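2 proteins. here.
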Amino acid sequence: MELFQRYLQAVKFLLPSAQQEDIVKELSEDIRSQKEDKEAEVGRPLNEIEQIAILKQYGHPLIVASRYRQAPVQYLIGPVLFPFYWFVLRTLLLIALGVCLLNSVAMFASGEPLRNLLNGLPAFARAGLPAFGWITLMFAVLDFLEAKFRLLDRLNRHWDPRSMPSLPKQPQVRRSESIFGLVAGTVYAIWLLAVPYYPYLIFGPAASVLKLTPLWHRFYLPVVVLALGGLAQAAINLARPDWTWLRATTRLVSNVVALVILRFILDKTYPFVIAIAGTGSAGTRYEILAATLNIFIALSLAGVAIGLSIAVVLNAWLCLRELRRFIRGRAVASGSF
């Protein structure tokens, strides 16, 4: 009964987050009861017209949600418009806070004292308070007009349940992404396995005059394991694209392990490459080449470490989102049709 699920989804969006599950469960059971009674009366499953008739009895999702938001006190913005008011206000204030924080960070990066970061707070107040005032005034006027001209009643009379948003699709890992991961991961794994036997794959023509320091070998096996782990994740997600949790978890673990490996590489392996002994001016050129390459590698690894740190935060957030989806379920309500 997709139409009923879409209705519950629309009502749920308009409810207070702390009460969403309980209210939607109660409403779902009520609708289910009416559906079963009607099916017992007609002796067959309900068609779309009969489903619409049941939903029309409840009314527009705005009306249903507003009944649960009713309060015994006077309010400036009523329960019908409050969900939209809160969504717009929260979004704009978060944008204003983000802009002010970025401005403070930019000032700090340019050499300003650390205390200037606090300048973002009054800047946020100057940007946020007028936005709060104007948005509140606008919604208060809209609420007054709705109450005076009964705009919601008109909307409810012309409301068609079939116009509600579709149910969200189950998240999946795109097969094209998995295929690309398989191809790229296979090439990378082959390259890693071949590197100990063919130094040319690292240094190119300079392989005859440069080589890695012996300490690199202790990190070789963990790097190979990480590469094979990414390859396995792509293969599994190609067969099971609905296992989005596997991609998020694998990437988080890989990023954390890679960050730990990088820390030890930066601490323990400098210099990263050394010049093969040469004579005269040729030997001097090789030493200069090795020193230049060591600086370049150090800067590159530092950049990779920064990128991995950002990736750890992003993938940790994705893992939390997957955990929340698992705990709360993917259904619109606990009692689905």
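next one coming up
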Amino acid sequence: MKRNVVSFRSNANLARQLWGEPSRIALCTLRDLTVRYSLSVAAGDLQFLDGRWYVTHSGLLQLASRKGCRGITTILQERLSDVGAGRWVFKATVYKSPGSKGFVGYGDADPSNVSLMVHGAELRIAETRAVNRALRKAYGIGLCSVEELGSSSRNPGPEADREPSAEHASNGSSNGQPRLRDQLCLVIRQHNLNPALVKAYAADFCGTPSLKEANRDLVQSFIAHLAACAKENRDMLIRRLNSYAQTAEVKP
């Protein structure tokens, strides 16, 4: 019990740093997520958007690993997919134990229900959504996952879609603050982190194919998250970064 309380305090403190003071209801929900599932803000398991908690794909995979998940399979639903329209539908099955019949989840994605930032990646998003839904069913997670949010949830309007990406925003700052690229480089240098692995982690954190396609708000959130993780538990951060080594190697 004491370990859970400490974890909750750490989660709550980091949440305040990243997103401001949560409401009492949000804090109660965070406590429940900490005690029941050991989800960690520092590890990127949770996101707080518009006053609500969302679990992340990496958080669900970490939970499955802790619970001893025996396997996950995905199958493209060809009859329901339309290659020409960029619409993809996947079926995912999660096996909690050797004798499990499996927990099934479906995920779909097309240009109308994903952010403009990730157009062209609908196939991967559809598979991720299917896996997330199956994992949430298997482990009783009532939260929606970040990756399941549609374009209207993650993009409030046309202005949001036109927000500068990390690449563009790095060319200057309108408020006198250091450029995003400079902020990220500073954190990397201060804590002696691998830049390529940080970029791969950032893309996963922001839910975009690459860091340069993430909007400014997401990049700022990632930088704050990275700095907090490096300060609180650098060893855990290094292990998480190393998990992206293979991904970083295959990217151009």
